[in-house]
Each structure stands twice: as structure tokens, then as C-alpha cells.
Design goal:
11% helix, 13 strands, mainly beta, 2 helices, Porin, single chain, three-stranded antiparallel beta sheet
């Protein structure tokens, strides 16, 4: 910037807030009246060096434009009077309630459904999302009832697209299963979730949709007095979540 605008740079105060993905909130104060000029700059560079050069070039252009045209209204571009689009006010994490449905292969569909609680946080420029969840699952047929509780800790990776976040999740889990008919029984197993996911982030609310597979090792096979329920090694999974952004 100094090579481009010289000592003029010393007359300006520039502050850059924490970026939100590719969006950099900045505030400039010029020598004319010291009035704050808040803007948001979107950069497209893939490395820190490229983003730094791009940001410096845009800041130099804004300062040159201000010198030629005079102070601009806060929140407007230096090239005209059109309002500058403000960055989305995105949460950094969430706590969510979820509902899910699982279905096995056509020969043993054995539908199950349930609810759960989950939480996550976006890190590394919103690329990674560590997550945890606690889930209850239920299947039934005649007098046979099967309940399952699982706890999982996993990691999602993806990309922010404005308010949308699109990615994939891998979450190993530990499972406890309890069956009731004429007799009761309990089993323990491992497994996990591998899903594609999309989330929509508002200021205080996060909506999410995940679909993929739920795995169980060892597979669960419960025989009742009149029927059998199977939770096989791979089942289709659909999850809807609504959460509080934090």
C-alpha cells in the first residue's frame, strides 16, 4: 500500500475485524473529518499471501477514491452511492435438537426413528466443524420393543457459501441397545455416522439436514415371541436439526 499511495497512508486509520470466511469487515477513518467508514471486503485468494495482497490493493483503491471524491457515507462503496452489502452475522457454534429416521435394506427394512441433542462449532475459517451428539432410537413390532442410546464425537469438513454451510460428517459412536418382549435383553456395540450435510445459519438459529449411512458393529438382531427386528451393519439415515446459534 505504501508503494502505491506513499505517505498518504500515514493520514489514515485502518482497522480489520475477525474475518467471516472470505468476508473482511474493515473500518477506515480519513484525515478530512475522522468519520468512521465501515465496509466489508470479499477476497478470493487461496493463501494468506494472496489474500493479504488483494486486501491491500482494495484498501489502497478506496483511499485513492476518497481523496478524489471526498468522504463517503459509512457502509457505501467508494465508487458510488449504492449501499455496501453488510456481512451476514453468523453464529460460531450451535446447540441443536434433532429428529432422525433409519431404514435398512429392502429385505430387512425395520424402520427406526428417534430424537437427540447435538452441538458443534465452526473453526479454521469455517472449514472444520467438530461435533458431538447424544441420540435415542426406537423400533417396534407387535409386542417387541427396541430402544437404543448412542453417543458420538466426530468431525465435519466443508465450505461456507454465504449463510449456507455444505460438507460431510464422520462420527464414530458407542451404542447401547435394550429390547423388551416376554423377556428383556441388553447389547453393546460400536458404529457411527457418515453423512453429507447442509446447514443454514441465521443470526440466532441454525437449520440442518444430513443424509447418508448409519453403521453398527456388531449388528443387532432381536428375536421376540412373534417377530424379529434387525439393525444391520449399514442403514440409511436421515437427520433434521434445529438449533440455537451461539
Amino acid at each position: 500500500m505504501r508503494a502505491r499511495i506513499g505517505d498518504l497512508l500515514d493520514e489514515w486509520s485502518i482497522s480489520i475485524d475477525e474475518p467471516q470466511g472470505p468476508l473482511y469487515p474493515i473500518t477506515l477513518r480519513g484525515p478530512e473529518d475522522g468519520q468512521a467508514d465501515a465496509r466489508t471486503i470479499e477476497v478470493t485468494g487461496t493463501s494468506d499471501e494472496e489474500r493479504s495482497r488483494e486486501l491491500a490493493s482494495v484498501l489502497a483503491l478506496i483511499i485513492e477514491s476518497r481523496q478524489e471524491t471526498g468522504p463517503a457515507d459509512p457502509g457505501t462503496t467508494g465508487d458510488g452511492d449504492q449501499p455496501k452489502k453488510q456481512p451476514p452475522n453468523l453464529p460460531r457454534g450451535f446447540v441443536a435438537a434433532e429428529a432422525h429416521l433409519e431404514l435398512g435394506p429392502p429385505r430387512d427394512p425395520d424402520l427406526s426413528m428417534g430424537a437427540g441433542l447435538g452441538a458443534g462449532v465452526w473453526v479454521l475459517r469455517d472449514i472444520l466443524q467438530p461435533r458431538l451428539r447424544l441420540r435415542w432410537t426406537h423400533s417396534w413390532n407387535d409386542d417387541l420393543r427396541v430402544h437404543g442410546v448412542s453417543a458420538g464425537l466426530g468431525l465435519a469438513a466443508g465450505l461456507p457459501l454465504g449463510r449456507l454451510w455444505v460438507g460431510a460428517l464422520a462420527m464414530p459412536s458407542f451404542k447401547w441397545t435394550h429390547a423388551m418382549d416376554t423377556k428383556a435383553g441388553t447389547a453393546y456395540s460400536g458404529g457411527g455416522e457418515a453423512t453429507a450435510m447442509v446447514q443454514y445459519r441465521m443470526r440466532h438459529v441454525v437449520f440442518g439436514l444430513r443424509t447418508g449411512v448409519e453403521t453398527t458393529f456388531r449388528p443387532v438382531r432381536i428375536r421376540g415371541s412373534n417377530d424379529v427386528i434387525r439393525w444391520g451393519p449399514v442403514r440409511w439415515l436421515l437427520v433434521l436439526e434445529v438449533g440455537l446459534g451461539i
